[in-house]
């Protein structure tokens, strides 16, 4: 299985992790997906020792004709590069969000449909032990039907690269940070989005230009299920971990929480909340490879990847325009 | 200090707790505030041993002329009874929400302004050790400026009295359960409400008529501060406590959380979150008595009591009508 990396900005470690378990995979080419990306930072990594380094990813794709293109450049270029790769017959493993505008998203969907290839966005958090454990437990009916979801992402800001400072290249905090939380909502509840109302603010963003340092979104879903998403970059720099991901799931038969990399279940058996034993971590790129090889669907489908992008862009539009946005949002 | 109790439905234990520390307070009369309230359930309580029991609270107020009226009847009668008590020159300590309609709220405000008397709603949760400790810590600047708030109320449903089953008498979950959380948002942030978008659902309410078993609200406040309120009656009956109150405060210099009756501060000093030592509990009725005696303002002001009622009714209107409601909301 021959792979080309386009861009070195996103979570390409997912690819390295998956390759470690899959000796027939090889990275054969590396190129920047956006002007200014420094692919040289990969030099010396064992995973790219057989790779040729290009300056033009289209030339690379044309010459090497890989089965898989990994797209992880500046966020504003995800859509364009994905379309180019699909048009050349590649399966695409792409950093989220897939697109920063509804127009770009439509172009990717169109190219995908015409391509008959596989695509998955990097919703890698699904594969952590805590999210997998919670999801399996919900599937088993441990909390009944989910009625309410509260999702949280809290990040350290640190000092972000310049491209984060501009809406045009970064896309906004609701798509970048929020799309994970939005994905959990859809994935866990199994419901479809009906509407979103969201807010975001650049105040106190420590000289990060247009980057929104706080955001809040309120989704309504089918069957009168509701979900909140709270996002911030205000986690203190000295905190023990980069992020503080949480998800609270309120069901008809119990309440489940993901917090601190643990899963807690409160369903009336045995009094207080109990911590669930964790499943082993999954591996998003291995799962994608499995799908490419025809061994079954990936946990993250192309449909999910498009739908979550749509929802994240709808939330951003709501916050920009100060109004409720209904789905389908375009 | 002579007190009359009107109604036995709300949190009248606040009054008993406050009286225990204040031997010059006496309950001189008890009457129902709503048809169907059984004041006989207080018979034998030492706090009412000197009280006369009436069937008509107006007659009671006219005959006994107490300094203080405690209003804690069915929620739909709070406003009317409060107006009657204010017009007779009583200070009023009243269960929240103060009113179930904007019209009723306006009547209470008008009567209050004309009365030159004191009024406070029963936002007793402010006086718990955890909320007092967090609030004092925020006042001292421990987390800088608050930018984002996430408030939670989760209750056991149990089997609620019939008057909870009808919107006309209960008023809705956003005003009844939500007004506490809405109070925290305003009290902690010091910001004013700009808009609210909310949702609520009666699905899976276990034969509780019109009672909304889940609700979610999204507030925007002055200075681009945002707040979520999540409410549910889905806490399992076997859980160790009736409620699961939480508040997360995201500030420019740190993050504070109230959870499980504890306060956690993450502000970069010493790595992970640290638990703060708790202040002793306060006492809302003692605080109200202090104000009545001219010894300084109560922590819960009349202005707060009106404003939080307005915000809760605005949230309910938003959920009923599926639209953003702007403040001032009438």
Give the topology:
The structure is a homodimer of 330-residue chains.
Chain A: E1 2-6, H1 13-20, E2 26-31, E3 52-53, H2 57-64, E4 68-71, H3 78-87, E5 91-94, H4 102-115, E6 119-121, H5 129-139, E7 146-154, H6 167-170, H7 173-176, H8 178-189, E8 193-201, E9 214-221, E10 225-232, E11 246-251, E12 254-259, E13 262-266, E14 274-275, H9 284-292, H10 302-321, E15 325-326
Parallel strand pairs in A: 1-2, 1-4, 2-3, 4-5, 5-6, 7-10
Antiparallel strand pairs in A: 7-11, 8-9, 8-15, 9-10, 11-12, 12-13, 13-14
Structure description:
The structure is a homodimer of 330-residue chains. With 330 residues, chain A is of the alpha/beta class. Helix content of chain A is 30%, strand content 24%. Chain A has helices spanning 13-20, 57-64, 78-87, 102-115, 129-139, 167-170, 173-176, 178-189, 284-292, 302-321; strands at 2-6, 26-31, 52-53, 68-71, 91-94, 119-121, 146-154, 193-201, 214-221, 225-232, 246-251, 254-259, 262-266, 274-275, 325-326. Chain A has a nine-stranded mixed sheet. In chain A, a hairpin with a 2-residue loop joins strand 12 (254-259) and strand 13. In chain A, helix 8 (178-189) packs across helix 10. The longest helix of chain A is centred in the last third of the chain and has 20 residues, at 302-321. The mean pLDDT of chain A is 96.
